[in-house]
Structures are given as structure tokens and as C-alpha cells.
Backbone:
């Protein structure tokens, strides 16, 4: 399941000239992974503005750089590309060192320092930044323990100051959720509009007919197996509810999670890095998606709802925007597995079609329309 595979064409507006036609445009992104939601957003923006040049810090080896027309920074030629934590202090420098000929418009897709890129003087170049989150490693390591290590504790305050100072040239911000909009205001003192990222709801809502008749007997957890995703809480919840659990994904927590799974009395199955077709089957066969993580937005819960599968998750972050309480799932203001198991016992009254209808509002067409409107309005 890769970003390159997932990203289909996003329709541009059907009337009028192409977006930013006749103007020079640069699209800017952080490191480009073969699997990631932010990469899907970048490619969706690129589909809206096909003539734009595309700049990234580096791309993973599995990414078809030439086909995607990605231009890499000098960091791509250093060992730093293998460690995001080590590279982090160098990212503002890398963007400031990248000074191509001035562009009319720069659009950054930023979850670290891409919004600090300056490809022309602000009196000539309009910089619009779509923000997945102010860098979690720098601003909110309490959300994600990967940023709380000693390696970053010293330079964090300096990086915060650099982040604010080097982004003053940005003319307009868009946030992927109200959660991120609030962080932009709190950390940077700037306003932002909310444009939810594109989710391929059409694909997940239209499985083969045989999949529609599954018994939905198991619980499902999907995502990268890392601590802040709380897969250990999913295992404890399944044990409390007495229901089988399927964990789909991969990551460094696998060995620990397998040890935890061996100690509970319910079956726990591990699906390592399933492809899109298999993931859709898992969504359609699940009684509920467990999602007890504090996410910026959370594409996975929307995919599940597109399949008619309700979500039981943490009452925090993007789930407050993507789940309709009591209609498409239940949110729990606790990490107590007994509370999550209690929510599971209330699922029978939910209508799968209500979840599917709700998911449509997060589709690619919605993103394309909102993004095109924002870019046209803010590009001057």
C-alpha cells in the first residue's frame, strides 16, 4: 500500500482555464516516502497544477522520482536522508539553500519545515502553505513520543524560533483539520482555513459484491505499529470485549505486540503491510475499526466509514471532525480498555449507510474543489 499506488488523478475544475495557467509554480514537500498520507496530498495538488515544478528534500528508493518529476535537495546525497531525527536541524538550511529562479507562486505541503522554503521575494512570489501539522518533533512531542528523545531536547527551542522567523514570508495557510488549525494559531500566531485531505472513498465504498455479505465478527486496527498509535490498547480492548482482533500494518512494535497478543484469550491476527484490495476486504469484514490515537486528521477512520464500518476511538484530534458521535461511531475520552469495550456494545444501533454517506464529504472531488478555490483566491 503506497502513496504512489493510492494516488489516482484528482479532477481539476471543469470550467475556465487550468489552475494558475500562465504563471510559474513550485510545489514543495518534505521527504517523499513511498507510503504516506502527506505524499498523497502533494500528488493531489500536483494533479491540480500539472505544469508546476516539484521539489522535495529527498525521495525513498522505492519512489519513481523521474516519473513523478521530483527534484531533490542536497540532503538526498548525504547519510542524513536515512535518519529524519538527525536531519531535522538541517531542514531549514536545506530549504534556504535551495534557491531556484523566482516563481510566481509557491505551494508547500508541510509537516516539518517546507513552509520555510523561499523561492522568490515575497513582493513577487506568493507562498501558500498546506500544513499537515507544525513539526510534531519540534512543537508537540507529547503527541508523538518519537520527538521526545534526548537528541532533540536541546535544539528544540532554537528550532521553534527558526520555524517562526523563517516562515514570515508565507502569505496564506491551509490546515488539514481544525486540530492543526488551532496549532498553527497557537505556535505560529497565524490564521488558516481548513481543507480536509483527499480520501479515496470511491474505492473503499465499492467492493466486490461478495464482500458486502461478511459477518463482521472481528475488530480491526490499521496503521503503523509505533507506540503513539496505541495498538496495545486495541489488544486490551478486544480482550475486554471478548472479540477477535486483526491488526493490519507494520512497524517496530511488532515483536512487542505479538507478545502482548499471546497473553490474551481472544484470537489476534497480524496482517503485515496489506495492499489496497486486502485492506478494503478487512474494512468490510470488521465489526468496528479501533482507533485510540490522537491524530492530526486520520485518513484510516474515513476509509473505514466509506466501507460502512463504524469507528471506536479516542475523543481527541481529527476524530472529532471525521466521526459523528452516535451515528458513525463512538469516541471515548479515556485510554481505559473497559470504556472502549463498553462503546463496542452500542454498535448494533448504527446504520452502515450513514457512515458511507458521511465519508463522501472527505472524497477527492471535495478536496480538489476546496483546494482550487483557496489557491485561486490567495494566489493574487
Residues:
Amino acid at each position: 500500500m503506497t502513496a504512489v499506488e493510492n494516488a489516482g488523478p484528482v479532477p481539476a475544475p471543469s470550467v475556465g482555464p487550468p489552475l494558475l495557467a500562465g504563471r510559474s509554480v513550485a510545489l514543495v514537500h518534505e521527504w517523499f516516502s513511498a507510503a504516506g498520507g502527506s505524499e498523497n496530498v502533494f500528488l493531489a495538488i500536483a494533479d491540480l497544477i500539472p505544469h508546476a515544478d516539484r521539489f522535495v528534500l529527498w525521495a525513498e528508493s522505492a519512489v519513481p522520482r523521474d516519473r513523478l518529476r521530483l527534484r531533490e535537495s542536497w540532503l538526498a546525497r548525504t547519510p542524513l536522508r536515512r535518519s529524519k531525527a538527525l536531519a531535522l536541524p538541517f531542514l531549514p538550511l536545506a530549504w534556504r539553500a535551495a534557491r531556484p529562479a523566482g516563481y510566481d507562486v509557491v505551494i508547500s505541503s508541510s509537516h516539518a519545515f517546507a513552509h520555510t522554503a523561499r523561492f522568490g521575494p515575497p513582493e513577487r512570489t506568493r507562498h501558500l502553505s498546506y500544513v499537515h501539522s507544525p513539526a510534531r518533533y519540534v512543537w508537540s512531542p507529547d503527541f508523538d513520543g518519537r520527538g521526545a528523545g534526548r537528541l532533540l531536547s536541546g535544539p528544540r527551542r532554537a528550532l521553534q524560533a527558526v520555524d517562526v522567523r523563517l516562515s514570515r514570508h508565507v502569505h496564506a495557510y491551509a490546515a488539514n483539520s481544525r486540530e492543526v488549525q488551532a496549532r498553527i494559531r497557537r505556535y505560529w500566531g497565524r490564521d488558516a482555513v481548513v481543507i480536509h485531505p483527499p480520501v479515496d472513498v470511491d474505492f473503499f465504498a465499492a467492493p466486490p459484491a461478495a464482500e458486502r455479505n461478511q459477518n463482521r465478527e472481528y475488530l480491526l486496527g490499521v496503521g503503523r505499529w509505533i507506540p503513539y498509535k496505541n495498538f496495545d490498547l486495541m489488544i486490551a480492548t478486544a480482550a475486554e470485549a471478548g472479540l477477535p482482533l486483526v491488526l493490519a500494518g507494520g512497524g517496530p512494535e511488532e515483536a512487542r505486540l505479538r507478545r502482548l497478543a499471546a497473553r490474551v484469550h481472544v484470537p489476534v491476527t497480524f496482517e503485515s503491510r496489506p495492499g489496497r484490495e486486502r485492506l478494503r476486504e478487512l474494512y468490510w469484514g470488521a465489526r468496528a475499526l479501533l482507533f485510540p490515537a490522537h491524530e492530526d486528521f486520520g485518513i484510516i477512520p474515513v476509509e473505514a466509514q466509506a466501507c460502512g464500518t463504524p469507528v471506536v476511538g479516542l475523543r481527541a484530534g481529527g476524530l472529532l471532525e471525521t466521526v459523528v458521535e452516535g451515528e458513525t461511531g463512538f469516541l471515548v475520552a479515556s485510554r481505559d480498555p473497559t470504556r472502549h469495550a463498553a462503546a463496542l456494545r452500542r454498535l448494533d444501533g448504527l446504520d452502515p449507510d450513514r457512515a458511507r454517506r458521511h465519508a463522501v464529504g472527505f472524497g477527492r472531488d471535495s478536496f480538489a474543489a476546496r483546494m482550487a478555490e483557496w489557491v485561486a483566491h490567495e494566489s493574487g
Notes: The radius of gyration is 21 Å. Residues 139 and 160 are 7 Å apart (CA to CA).
